[in-house]
Amino acid sequence: MNEIEQYIRVIQDFPKEGVLFKDIATLLQNPKAMQLCKKQLIDLVGDQKIDKVIGIESRGFFFGTLLAAHFNAGFIPVRKPGKLPYKTISELYDLEYGTDAVEIHIDAIKKGERVLIHDDVLATGGTANAVCKLVERLGGEIVQCNFIIQLDFLNGKEKLKNYTIASALQY
Q1: What GO annotations for molecular function exist for this entry (predicted)?
Q2: Helix, strand, coil percentages in the chain from 3-state DSSP, rounded to 5
């Protein structure tokens, strides 16, 4: 058992019936668990050079900023449409019923910068894949897509098969 797994709360039937939601709120409430998780996420990257860390709204912000500080890199928030104040580009992605989008500031990444993408959970991969497309449109090089939890049964890694994926926990 991974050391941080004991700090993940499982909530049955959230957000809908039949889903076992992996809640990181209990991990965030415990300083020891946060330190363990941060160390594991850093270890997943190793000694690779990172210029920017992207945190995907909103739970990707928690450890994304910590990763950026550790790697002496800039932090970039990627958000839902209309939440960023400056000029943005956006990328649509499919949901079970319909579409959604994510946005990034047009000046967030310079051509050739090495980017670490972080979020709490890799589920179906739609959001992370859209973020990868944004990074590439701005000329960034994706070093890794980094997650606390990977839900293998949802097969999100298929949408990210062209990228290096790493996660602390897999279910």
Answers
A1: adenine binding; adenine phosphoribosyltransferase activity; AMP binding
A2: 30, 35, 35
Look up the CATH number of the domain holding residue 135.
Answer: 3.40.50.2020
Going by C-alpha positions, the residue among 148, 162, 135, 119 that lies closest to residue 51 is 135
Active-site residue, from 59, 114, 141, 158: 59
Is there a catalytic annotation at residue 96?
yes
Residues 6+ apart with CB under 8 A from 102: 56, 57, 78, 79, 80, 81, 90, 91, 93, 127, 130, 131, 134
Contact of 104 with 81, CB cutoff 8 Å:
no
Those residues with Cβ within 8 angstroms of residue 45's Cβ, 6 or more apart along the chain or in another chain: 67, 71, 116, 143, 144, 146, 166
Tell me whether residue 59 is one of the annotated catalytic residues. yes
Residue 97 within any structural domain of the chain: yes
Q: What is the pLDDT of residues 102-133, one digit of tens each?
A: 999 999 999 999 999 999 999 999 999 999 99
Integer Cα distance of 40 and 132 in angstroms: 22
Please report which confidence band the pLDDT of residue 136 belongs to, taking 50, 70 and 90 as the band edges.
Answer: very high
Whole-angstrom distance, CA of residue 170 vs CA of residue 119: 14
Could you tell me if residue 151 is inside a domain? yes
